[in-house]
Amino acid sequence: MLFTSIRIRTFLLTALFAFTNSLTAQTLSQAERRARLDSVLSSRYYKTSYDTNYVVRPEGRLTLKVRMNQTGNDLHAKGTVNDVHAKADLSTSHKTTFSLGAIYRGIGIGVAVNPAKWKGVYKDYELNFNYYSSRLSLDLSYQRSESLTGKMYLDDVPKHLQSGDATMRVLNVAGYYTFNHRRFSFPAAFTQSYIQRRSAGSWLAGFSYQGGNIKTTDALLARNPNAPETRIYTGHFGIGGGYGYNWVLGRKWLLHFSMLPTFVVYNRNNMTVRGERKKAQHMRFNMIFNERAAVVYQFSPRYFAGATLVMNNSVFDDDAVVINQNKWRARAFFGIRLGK
Question: Half-sphere exposure of residue 127, counting CA atoms within 13 Å on the CB side?
Fold first, then answer.
């Protein structure tokens, strides 16, 4: 009996020792995997195609940013359908959001809050996607709005549109290619994932697209039975080129401005009033302008702040349909870099 008890104790001690060793090995393995992953991300983070005399990576593993964003959209359209001259001057309510983002070795995640939407005041929906790299950059925004307000004219007779009388769905896309990508950095101005050390500029090539529709709702017809059912459709694509410049002042200030005008090479714009549609010519010489501006101030290698502005403006003029859209997004931010 004593021998059996000793064997059981020996077995338990052996099992406990083996489990402890396994747990220690597993812990070490997890630590090694984390260190290896950090090493891979660090190598990827500091590997760059930039000329480091002009553009460098900032120090710090983790970057935290607080941002305030505001967006808006104005649209002006006019056309003549069956001898009825229609004109619309509309704008959406401004959307204001606050966001917090975390970026670890160039990989980021963020969350945004819209106080007006929580209160039920703002019912629109908007999605913004931005991508900035050394060579390629992309700005994309999709907006669905029921807050359009303004005036619509029929044969010069004004009719006031209230929120809910018309809906808008619109997509704006602008893509850039940077030729002097070794010395000029879009990310330095718009994501702060790089630091521009010396002033530099670059020629740009790119494309633009604006598409969507605006149409009156049943709420307008219920409020005003004589109001005509109207639908404005936009869909035009342009290609072009421009220039961007990063101006460094005293190694603390960065001022950025860029413009990419594109020429519309194809469109499907049209206007429908009371079921009758008037189409624009598919091939029509018009333009879409894309402008960007930014200011960034480096308090120290750790702290920074600034503001950015991105705009898309279209000028489309046709004998049948005239459509001008002005979409903009302004952003203010403050950030801190942590770790080595």
Answer: 8
**What are 112-132's pLDDT values in tens digits?**
666 656 666 567 788 888 888
Q: Which residue has the tokens 């059912």?
A: 229
Q: Is 192 exposed, middle or buried (0-12, 13-18, 19+ CB in 10 A)?
A: buried
The CA–CA distances, whole Å, from 288 to 77, 94, 172, 258 equal 15, 22, 11, 14
Of 180, 309, 184, 176, residue with least CA distance to 239: 176
Residue (of 6, 23, 59, 38) closest to 303 by Cα position: 59
Write out 180-240 in H/E/C secondary structure: CCCCCCHHHHHCCCCEECCCEEEEEEEEEEEEEEEEECHHHHHHCCCCCCEEEEEEEEEEE
- Is the per-residue pLDDT at 28 higher than 70? no
Identity of the residue numbered 86: A
Share of the chain above pLDDT 70, in %: 80
| CA 68 and chain centroid, separation | 13
CB crowding 204-214: b at 16 or more within 10 Å, else e: bebbbbbbbeb
Claim: this prediction has a pTM higher than 0.85: no
Average pLDDT over residues 32-50: 63
CA distance 209 to 218: 29
At which residue do the structure tokens 């963020």 appear? 110
**Residue of higher predicted confidence among 172 and 318:** 172
